[in-house]
Amino acid sequence: MISATVGMVGCFNCPDWLEDEIKPDEYNGRVVLVAEGYPCQLDVTLDQDGHEKKISLCKCGLNSGPWQSIKTGDVLVKGKGSVSLTLTRGDTTIAVFDYPCCDH
Q: CATH classification of 10-98 is 1.10.3470, yes or no?
């Protein structure tokens, strides 16, 4: 299992973004699509009880390593008020880490 918590650095205010945009959200769903998005971005579509939820993740910055291994069928969980994510494959936790911010 990979565990990572890295300080956030960037050209935008990452702490405010995490507080205002990421913490209020929650999800618990199975990955149905992983696609390249905007440069340095990975778009992940989750199935949450029959409803699709799309999240965009920075794959080029600090703490982005665990996203490189995400696959269709994995389960991604993030609780409301948290920036911590859990990536599970089958019955095995693959990674627990903080939501990644781009560092440029």
A: no
- Whole-angstrom Cα distance, residue 29 to residue 9? 28
Helix (H) or strand (E) holding 15: helix 14-17
**DSSP structure string for 19-36:** IIIITT--EEEEEEEEEE
Distances (CA, A) of 92 to 2, 12, 95: 12, 35, 9
Provide the residue-wise pLDDT of the chain in tens; the chain has 104 residues: 444 444 444 456 778 888 998 999 999 999 999 998 777 788 899 999 999 999 888 777 655 666 777 899 999 999 999 999 899 999 999 988 888 776 54
Q: Which residues partner with 77 through β-bridges?
A: 28, 86
Helix (H) or strand (E) holding 38: none
Task: Evaluate whether 30 touches 75 at the Cβ level (below 8 Å).
Answer: yes
